[in-house]
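Complex 427.
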Amino acid sequence: MPVLAIIGAQWGDEGKGKVVDLLAGKAGVVVRFSGGDNAGHTVINPYGKFKLHITPSGIFYPQTISIIGNGVVLNPAVLIGEIDHLNQCGVNTTKLFISDRAHLIMPYHLLLDRLEEESRAGKAIGTTGKGIGPAFADKVARSGIRTGDLLDKEVFLERLRFILDYKNTILTKVYGASPLSLDEIYGQYCQYRERLAAHIMETDTIMERALNQDELVILEGAQGTLLDPDFGTYPYTTSSSPLSGGGCLGAGISPPRLSHILGVFKAYCTRVGSGPMPTELKDETGDLIRERGHEYGTTTGRSRRCGWFDAVGARFSTRINGFTGIAITRLDILDTLPHLKICVGYKLKGKTIDYFPSSITALEKCQPIYEELAGWQTPTSDIRQYEQLPLPARQYIARLEELLPCPVSLISVGAEREQTILKTPVL
Ligand code: GDP
Ligand code: IMO
Ligand code: MG
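Predicted structure with 6-O-phosphoryl inosine monophosphate bound:
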């Protein structure tokens, strides 16, 4: 009964979409387990190039069931747009199911995301503006509306009326904004119901069947470990857990079932939005990585902050997720550099530390301690065998394995499915 969780190990955008698309051919079920359409997972395969925000990246395999899990918050308009686009590109979406426990993103969530960010002024988080924080806040405050509620017109209307009344008080009295119309939202969401009803169900039965039949289940992570609300750089985080533990909760898998946990790391670091990033390079090397790597956000188009690989954060991420293997992506982006650096510790108030501080005030003061390694200055995008990688590239990988410590199973040297080196089997 293999269950493989594919987890973002840094600040998101590590290449999870590519890795899921690569491995999903063997899977019976792929489940997106957290976040919402703040995610942007790029997949390039024979159907074309896709930027999936909410649809699981296993959607391209006709035999694979895709599930939007209970831990996701769903903007129905975004999903309908993705289904239409996928269908136009010849991708079958009849095996896409939505957990009836997943919460809905409502128009007031989008509005409040923007208003809350504006009110944070100089301390804005730099959210994606997709209503994620307000939707998860409502879930835990027991003021959310679930996709299952949408299926029953009366239940939905009653719940919406009750909640919208309160939301309109906040919108008008706290923010001085205009109230939202019950009729408009109700009408709009009834149209979404027409489109999505056939996909919404108790997905537990699908999971149970797949597990009983020994099929591979892949849990597709969104965001990255250092954006986790508990273990990330709080409050500069997202609002649901991208961790392997979050995978169990957000897909409805008991922890002992999780047999493989693959941590996806970029060969360097990037971050979009605000918050500390100890290895950020605000110099020409950072610019070079951004331009060579086209490091601009998949969801918002914002420019990503770039920096050297942070092995302190990576070791922390490896420990709290329990990675059984590692995928290193975007090795090819480093191909032209004469030397590389890895952060192996931090200097904090004159002392050397080897842990990732919980306080952002401390993390902001951390100065990275670097180890320098030789670059390879050779193109790697066409290499498919580990032994054929230039020696300095293998030395770089070996050093990461030693520092994490965790074995590297997969190395990605380009955005396309086949631009991948399998060092050791993932499963
Ligand atoms: P995700 O959110 O983790 O799925 O990652 P994103 O899709 O937001 O960002 C990763 C970007 O890197 C996308 O543009 C991918 O197409 C691309 N990509 C993934 N792996 C590689 C790789 O090994 N090399 C290069 N050059 N691009 C890659
Ligand atoms: P994928 O799945 C990178 C960041 C935002 C912001 C913070 C909070 O593609 O890796 P939110 O909208 O979640 O309230 O924003 O989290 N963020 C991401 N950064 N990749 C993502 O997803 C992200 N999802 C959210 O930039 O800093
Ligand atoms: Mg992304």
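Residues 265-422 form a domain with the Adenylosuccinate Synthetase; Chain A, domain 3 fold (CATH 3.90.170.10).
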